[in-house]
Design goal:
Oligomer: single chain
Strand order of the largest sheet: 1-4-5
Distance between the termini: 34 Å
Largest sheet: 3 strands, parallel
Structural class: mainly alpha
Order of helices and strands: EEEHHHHHEHEH
Number of strands: 5
CATH topology: Tetracycline Repressor, domain 2
Shape: globular
CATH class: Mainly Alpha
Strand content: 5-15%
């Protein structure tokens, strides 16, 4: 039976916690290796190298996110609000093309709607996911976009025998 909707949130949930940016799996992005996709994403937010280093030094992926969300306006790269979705798109592509098991998991979701389903109601959770069915679910949308792209890339590809 195919699922119409797959909800995920905590990185520790099996099997779909792997869709969380807090899931502990190294990602190589822009020539740098990051502990998680959250690290890779947030690394692009800081204007100054020392602020980036401070954010990335947080002891867990969740604290990396908290540190980055707490940056002052002047510590954030100009135009972040316009570029953040493209950065996340690139980070997700890196994560799911560098890890065959994660790619297979994403492709195995079929046509199900992917939803980051948060419990705490705040602006960030309603942007990247949904809270009580409300929100833009941008992480889910970008994952579904990537899933379609990976599926398209897999068609017509000939493997050398």
């Amino acid at each position: 039976m195919a699922l119409d909707e797959i909800r995920f949130y905590r990185a520790s949930e099996k099997p779909y916690g792997a869709f969380s940016n807090l899931f502990r799996r190294p990602v190589v992005f822009e020539g740098e290796t990051f502990a998680t996709s959250e690290h890779a994403y947030q690394a692009g937010k800081a204007r100054k190298p020392e602020v980036k280093a401070w954010v990335l030094a947080a002891p867990s992926p969740a604290l990396v996110a908290m540190a980055a969300h707490g940056l002052y306006y002047w510590d954030i790269v100009p135009g972040w609000s316009r570029t953040k979705f493209d950065r996340m798109r690139g980070v997700l592509k890196a994560k799911f093309t560098q890890n065959e098991d994660l790619k297979e998991l994403l492709l195995a979701t079929g046509n199900a709607r992917l939803v980051e389903s948060a419990t705490v109601d705040n602006e960030v959770n309603r942007l990247w996911g949904e809270v009580n069915g409300q929100g833009r679910n941008m992480l889910g949308e970008l994952l579904m976009e990537l899933r379609a792209e990976l599926r398209q890339d897999g068609k017509g590809v000939r493997r050398a025998a």
